Amino acid sequence: MGDWGFVAAALVIGFLGSSHCIGMCGGIAGALGMAVPGQKTAWGQLVSYSAGRIASYTLMGALAGALGAAVLPALAPLRLVAGLMLIAMALYIGGIWRGLVWLEKGGSYLWRYLQPLSAQLLPVRTAPQALVLGSLWGWLPCGLVYSALTFALAQGGSLNAALAMLAFGLGTVPAVLATGAAAARVRGFVQRPQVRLLFAGAILLFGLWTLWGALGHGGQHHQSMSMDGGQMAPNTSEPHHQH
User: Which of 23-27, 50-54, 190-194 has the lowest mean pLDDT?
Assistant: First the structure.
């Protein structure tokens, strides 16, 4: 994948997965977007809520990237897992296979401690409250987030993983903002079977592309990068051996 290609891919994955994101966060976004005295829509609260979520996703990526680099430096296995996770996410969004539910159940252990804290912030009346709520809600057990996190891990290193999760979070923002502004209309659109299947098909292509990179093209790419680095000295010394 190109130098910044993974960032663009993560952004698109977040946007395409927004149909699932609306199901998970739509209720909160809709509540934040309700009319308040003096303004039609609480845009400040909606933006702050999204900023909190994205900050949590970015932190999640940085921590997981650092841990992944220490425990499993080789990227090929991570890319295989990332491709399979994206395919599983596509099947999940398309309503074909809900195997990712077990991952969400696994993440529920942490959420048991965070959920009471988030409940204390409701109802949200200020932008700072919405920011804190979003930062907590970012840790809500979600198969889409876990799939994106696996994809981020496969990019190698804490910085790349953080950038991928940042881009993923930004990709979910349009749907969340739209849900806050017109919850019923937006939710009805993205929950249409044909729309969900369209988004699922696009994510499926990303999953297959990631698998292809892990099994074939990606290996050649890393080999060439290795030759540019560690193998440069032997290559330049070959003419001297020939003499």
Answer: 23-27
